[in-house]
TrEMBL record:
Identification of the protein by name: Metallo-beta-lactamase superfamily protein
Metallo-beta-lactamase domain: residues covered: 31-188
Pfam families given in the database record: Lactamase_B_5
SMART domains: Lactamase_B
Highest taxon of source: Bacteria
Amino acid sequence: MSEPKAKARSLQEVVPGVYHWYVQDDRIGARSEAYAVVDRDGAVVLIDPLPIDESLLLPLGSITAIVLTAGNHQRSAWRFRKRFNVPVWAPRDAHGLEEEADTVYGNGDTLPGGLNAFHTPGPAHVMYTLWMQQSPRGVVFLSDLLTHPDDGPPAFVPSEYQDEPVRTRMSIQRVIDHLPVDALCFAHGEPIVRDGEQVLRKALEQDSEGASAPAP
């Protein structure tokens, strides 16, 4: 999938060491988010990167890797790979990659920037939540499990746009059960910096489509 036409002109800090930017994504008619994680040694990892004025990224440190959460989040990854001469990490068997990833990863793998991979299928079979402990917070990058609209709380994408809607809800429950969650970073919508576990529980409780899933 080609890059969005828009380019971000600002960069915001989510929590210490985690930054985000967004564009109005003409490809999908909605807002899309991207993230940068700055490791303790100053190395910078880009997550699902979108077009941005590169002068905003350079002060963060040396960009050392790009991590994709799913095949449909390639965005600016291949152009940035060439621009910064860094590897792209992608999920094993990710669908529709336009170029070959330098490294593939799977459930439980440790990725650059202190990120940990957690398989969370539903919107697509090959989709990963990334988790990191950014003391004192647990930060999760949810990919497409939930979106955060401007006019309301986080919610599930309509079922017709998901491969397996019930598995999406199971994946959210597994995140609650297995990952310490404080800050939530969405692929579409403003991040939430505190009370992440309660936010996820509320999304399940208020699921407007009433999907129910058996216990994982």
